[in-house]
Amino acid sequence: MATTALTPQTHDETVQDGIVLIDFWAEWCGPCRQFGPVFETVSEANPDAKFVKVDTESEPELAAQYGVSSIPMLVIYRDGIPVFGQPGALPQPALEDLLKQVRDLDMDAVKQQYAQQVAAAEAQASGRKPANDPTSF
User: Fold this and answer.
1) Which intervals hold domain Thioredoxin (predicted)?
2) Is 32 a known active-site residue?
């Protein structure tokens, strides 16, 4: 599968199912130009995953949404949950290994942990303690 462009309009639908790798890049970025062919090659060898690219110059709102401050940056979702995010270009073997690790995740455990993180963040935002906090009354 070739890579496709990710836009704010296609973002939510794109990341909701399966494994999705997002490459944040820009034309002027040397490391991005080095990583691009690696990303493309791995995408062609793994048709079960979605490989999408975000041009940070064309889609600054997506870059801001993810807090991208260094490119290239790779973000990986599995079943709608972000499971990896890191700046820097990866060599092909490292990207392939990372994809294998994402495939091997125990998604029941990941979903449980993610739900706890979301609940804690929501509680913190509202100024209350999470229900499972032993110091809450």
Assistant:
1) 1-104
2) yes
